[in-house]
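Researcher: Structure prediction, please.
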Amino acid sequence: MTIKPKPKPYSAINRRFYKAFKRPQKKKLFYGGAGSGKSISIAQHFLQGLCSGDGVRRLVLRKYFPSMKVSTYLVLKSILQAWDVPYIEHKTDHYLQVGDNFLYYMSLDDPEKVKGGEFKEIWMEEATEFLEDDYKQLTLRLSRDKSAEDVQIYLSFNPIDENNWCVKLMEYGKLHEDEFLVHHSTYKDNIKNLSKTFVKELENLIDTDENFYRIYALGLPGVLKNKIYNHFKIENSELWPWNNLNDSLHFYGLDFGYNHPMALCEVWYFNDEFYVKEVYYEREKTTDDLAVWMQLNNISHTDYIFADNAEPDRIDMLCTSRKVSSVIDGNELSIYVHSFNCNPAKKDVKAGIDFIKGKKIHLCSKAINGIREYNNYKYKEDRNGNVFEEPVKAFDDFLDSLRYGIYTASIKFGLNGDLGATEQYTADVGYGYDPYTPDPYLEY
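Model: Predicted structure follows.
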């Protein structure tokens, strides 16, 4: 079966933003709701500059480089592909080149990377990830170089907390229009590019949480309070103690979804601490799609996967060796999938959250969806300000998978500090698990 390829994304530029790029202010702040098109439009603007032949160097920044590699960097390359633009990529020095123009993509972990007059346009994507001091140091270094006087700085962000420095800078910018352009947008400014499911989810936030509706649907500053987790350590996973982790307890957590994202996290347990990666986070994917992805991406067939126990049929599907079909990059792939050791998770929400609160959690900085959920995960609150010990059911798919995995493993393996740090574990036969399967036969 041949699947007709989808139209290339990002081929048209949103005029709502295009006009703002032409304004003379040197500091441009783009804030608003989810799906408003602000990040895509700024990326298109920077790539237009890359293709313009003006000989200018431009810079795109994220706070953490792993976040850049799995998000903004991929968007930039997708746009160039959609535009059929030939380019040279320098992966070591992290820049794209078209003619004599250069577009660098970096993190701000080393502020000295950004020198005075080297760049004429700089974009701080997901600006709320940065510290205010990052922004101040950046502008200070630029201001002391005469050649940097005409540099333009772009910031893009969701105004998740009225006390965040980006929101305060935005309010200051509104009073200083000669220096700042402040641009607001919502999903309605980009609605022709959004799925009906996504729009419905945004609009339904008004019945879920008024604060989330204000932030993500209306694009207005929110008041982020009653946050559930505040103790995760967001880190470069390359620096984790892999000599110990490779010999430690290893398992997965899985939250099923379709309209909501399907989320799979990978967890290592060492020295009473948990190390977590986000390995799968996709909307509108079936269990078969997940099974094929897991087979092709070497997800363990023997280590435990603790999955939402409200979906026994889907757990059974993952535990069955069979031939499965999935559409990958527009082409249908048929593959023989070995059974996975998938088990129903313990879903006691309060007990699970309380357990996680009492443990050290190391979260890989590449977990862009997990970090976003972590920053938004909060308890329910009624209109009278009464707080309930129940999470808001939004922005929780990855965190549900994390809770399923960690809390269920804590019960299964007795993770109460009594276990040896380097003890070896072998997964049992799980829920419907069939370890006796023939070798897989791939058919393309």
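Model: The longest helix spans residues 397-413.
Researcher: Thanks, that helps.
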